[in-house]
């Protein structure tokens, strides 16, 4: 029994010596958990306002929040920390003199979620600058001198939710950041206020969902005044979007080197904004979105008859899809009316009303079916063409007559005939008539060497004047000439 007790005592002595040596080593090792210029509280390191020209070395690997703001840092190189800080989720670098950041500077902090680079001297954001920060959610870059933003500067940042770029010198709107289905699918806030934006992609901004427009801040920019800009912000005001309601007085535009509030553009005579209804034609397929100001809300649709629209109903033309949109299959006239969407979220609830107008005709019918207006227009054109054909292409009555027998006279082409009230040519038949009634009518014959066109005499030809006869007598004209000398224009001699 004595040897066993001695062996047990030896093991206890060795264990005590090991624990003692561990404590001595722990107490005597260099203090790397808190650099001399920093204040430490658990996993938080505050090195602020120490006029540090460089980042302290030997940062502990368990650091979760590192505050290096209000110092004299000018460059952030790839080797700014030799230790890989996998637990770091917040890095504060504001109020320094940073003018250069290496594209590999964020490799040691792959799990960073909050990065503050505000109030520095950055001028450009190069491509793939933040590509290593795939878990980043908030990025602050306001109050710098940024003039150019590369289109690939924010690639591979699928978790980014808030991006602050205000108080810079940006003149191009980065549409690639907010366009639907773009590289930042979770972005809910983009602050571009107090920059040098003059023109905006207005049609593209109109198409953005409300949850993006609600966090798109554009105030204090020298925007160009026009009615389309007024309609854009009036719509946002109608929807009570925070980006407009919080900064109504700071939303202005430039016209003739003067500032004007975007909601007071009376000099442009812009039409008042009115919420437009959805329009559809008979038999169309239509999808109406419940455009809420927040993502992930629970949505319920109610019909104009105050009946809830269910998700899936057999033989129903109106259903609700998985994303909360209202879907119409072969819309009918009776489907028209005001539909209401009730959206419920964690922070607030929202109610939206959408009016649907259904026209009682199809937009694209059969090929033999024409629109009423088009049919009327074609009928008018055909009527005008037929009238013109009748007026100008119908042959004249005198043109249809055959070729007249040429006159037997070879002399002058002008023949005369006496019109009388008596049917015969007896010179004695008119003895009892009024002596004053003596009228001569001359007709132009189309043939003859002395005539021109239309029976007119050529120069040098004269009319044969009949000799004077006794009172009460009439000179009988040649019967043969009476039947052959008719012309278009009678000449009274």
UniProtKB/TrEMBL annotation:
<keyword id="KW-0524">Neurogenesis</keyword>
<dbReference type="GO" id="GO:0007155">
    <property type="term" value="P:cell adhesion"/>
</dbReference>
<dbReference type="Pfam" id="PF13855">
    <property type="entry name" value="LRR_8"/>
</dbReference>
<dbReference type="Pfam" id="PF00560">
    <property type="entry name" value="LRR_1"/>
</dbReference>
<dbReference type="GO" id="GO:0005886">
    <property type="term" value="C:plasma membrane"/>
</dbReference>
<comment type="subunit">
    <text>Homodimer, and heterodimer with AMIGO2 and AMIGO3. Interacts with KCNB1.</text>
</comment>
<keyword id="KW-0433">Leucine-rich repeat</keyword>
<dbReference type="GO" id="GO:0030425">
    <property type="term" value="C:dendrite"/>
</dbReference>
<feature type="domain" description="Ig-like">
    <location>
        <begin position="283"/>
        <end position="353"/>
    </location>
</feature>
<keyword id="KW-0325">Glycoprotein</keyword>
<dbReference type="GO" id="GO:0043204">
    <property type="term" value="C:perikaryon"/>
</dbReference>
<dbReference type="InterPro" id="IPR013098">
    <property type="entry name" value="Ig_I-set"/>
</dbReference>
<feature type="compositionally biased region" description="Basic and acidic residues">
    <location>
        <begin position="431"/>
        <end position="442"/>
    </location>
</feature>
<comment type="similarity">
    <text>Belongs to the immunoglobulin superfamily. AMIGO family.</text>
</comment>
<dbReference type="InterPro" id="IPR007110">
    <property type="entry name" value="Ig-like_dom"/>
</dbReference>
<keyword id="KW-1003">Cell membrane</keyword>
<keyword id="KW-0472">Membrane</keyword>
<keyword id="KW-0812">Transmembrane</keyword>
<dbReference type="GO" id="GO:0051962">
    <property type="term" value="P:positive regulation of nervous system development"/>
</dbReference>
<dbReference type="GO" id="GO:0007420">
    <property type="term" value="P:brain development"/>
</dbReference>
<feature type="transmembrane region" description="Helical">
    <location>
        <begin position="373"/>
        <end position="393"/>
    </location>
</feature>
<keyword id="KW-0217">Developmental protein</keyword>
<dbReference type="InterPro" id="IPR001611">
    <property type="entry name" value="Leu-rich_rpt"/>
</dbReference>
<dbReference type="InterPro" id="IPR013783">
    <property type="entry name" value="Ig-like_fold"/>
</dbReference>
<keyword id="KW-1015">Disulfide bond</keyword>
<dbReference type="InterPro" id="IPR032675">
    <property type="entry name" value="LRR_dom_sf"/>
</dbReference>
<keyword id="KW-0966">Cell projection</keyword>
<dbReference type="GO" id="GO:0051130">
    <property type="term" value="P:positive regulation of cellular component organization"/>
</dbReference>
<dbReference type="InterPro" id="IPR003598">
    <property type="entry name" value="Ig_sub2"/>
</dbReference>
<feature type="region of interest" description="Disordered">
    <location>
        <begin position="405"/>
        <end position="493"/>
    </location>
</feature>
<keyword id="KW-0221">Differentiation</keyword>
<keyword id="KW-0597">Phosphoprotein</keyword>
<dbReference type="Pfam" id="PF07679">
    <property type="entry name" value="I-set"/>
</dbReference>
<dbReference type="GO" id="GO:0030154">
    <property type="term" value="P:cell differentiation"/>
</dbReference>
<dbReference type="InterPro" id="IPR003591">
    <property type="entry name" value="Leu-rich_rpt_typical-subtyp"/>
</dbReference>
<keyword id="KW-0677">Repeat</keyword>
<feature type="compositionally biased region" description="Polar residues">
    <location>
        <begin position="408"/>
        <end position="424"/>
    </location>
</feature>
<keyword id="KW-0130">Cell adhesion</keyword>
<feature type="signal peptide">
    <location>
        <begin position="1"/>
        <end position="27"/>
    </location>
</feature>
<protein>
    <recommendedName>
        <fullName>Amphoterin-induced protein 1</fullName>
    </recommendedName>
</protein>
<keyword id="KW-0732">Signal</keyword>
<keyword id="KW-1133">Transmembrane helix</keyword>
């Amino acid at each position: 029994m004595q040897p066993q007790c001695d062996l047990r005592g030896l093991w206890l002595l060795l264990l005590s010596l090991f624990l003692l040596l561990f404590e001595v080593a722990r107490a005597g090792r260099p203090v790397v958990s808190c650099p001399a210029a920093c204040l430490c509280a658990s996993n938080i390191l505050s090195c602020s306002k120490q006029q540090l020209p460089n980042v302290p070395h030997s940062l502990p690997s368990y650091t979760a929040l590192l505050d290096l703001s209000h110092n004299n840092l000018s460059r952030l190189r790839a080797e700014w920390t030799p230790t890989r800080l996998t637990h770091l989720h917040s890095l504060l670098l504001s109020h320094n003199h940073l003018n250069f950041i290496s594209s590999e500077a964020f490799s040691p902090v792959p799990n960073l979620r909050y990065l503050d680079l505000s109030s520095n001297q950055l001028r450009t954001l190069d491509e793939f600058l933040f590509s290593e920060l795939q878990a980043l959610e908030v990025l602050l870059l306001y109050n710098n001198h940024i003039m150019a933003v590369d289109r690939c500067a924010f690639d591979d940042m699928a978790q980014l939710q808030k991006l602050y770029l205000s108080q810079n010198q940006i003149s191009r709107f980065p549409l690639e950041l907010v366009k639907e289905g773009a590289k930042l699918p979770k972005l809910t806030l983009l602050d571009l206020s107090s920059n040098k934006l003059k023109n905006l992609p207005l049609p593209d901004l109109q198409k953005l969902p409300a949850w993006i427009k609600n966090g798109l801040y554009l105030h204090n920019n020298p925007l160009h005044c026009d009615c389309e800009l007024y309609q854009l912000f009036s719509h946002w005001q109608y929807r009570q979007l925070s980006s407009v309601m919080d900064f109504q007085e700071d939303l202005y535009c430039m016209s003739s080197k003067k500032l004007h509030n975007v909601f007071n553009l009376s000099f442009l005579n812009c039409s008042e904004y009115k919420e437009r209804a959805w329009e559809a034609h008979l038999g169309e397929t239509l999808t109406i979105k419940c455009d809420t100001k927040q993502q992930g809300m629970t949505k319920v649709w109610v019909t104009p008859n105050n009946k809830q629209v269910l998700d899936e109903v057999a033989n129903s033309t109106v259903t609700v899809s998985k994303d909360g949109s209202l879907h119409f299959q072969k819309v009918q006239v009776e489907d028209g009316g005001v539909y209401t969407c009730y959206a419920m979220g964690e922070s607030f609830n929202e109610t939206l009303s959408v009016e649907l107008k259904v026209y009682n005709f199809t937009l694209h019918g059969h090929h033999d079916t024409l629109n009423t207006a088009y049919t009327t227009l074609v009928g008018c054109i055909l009527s005008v063409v037929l009238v013109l054909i009748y007026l100008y292409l119908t042959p004249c009555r005198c043109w249809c007559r055959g070729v007249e027998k040429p006159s037997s006279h070879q002399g002058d082409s002008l023949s005369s005939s006496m019109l009388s009230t008596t049917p015969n040519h007896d010179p004695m038949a008119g003895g009892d008539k009024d002596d004053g009634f003596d009228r001569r009518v001359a007709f132009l014959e189309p043939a003859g060497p002395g005539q021109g066109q239309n029976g007119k005499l050529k120069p040098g030809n004269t009319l044969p004047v009949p000799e004077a006869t006794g009172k009460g007598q009439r000179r009988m004209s040649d019967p043969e000439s009476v039947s052959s000398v008719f012309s278009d224009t009678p000449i009274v001699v």
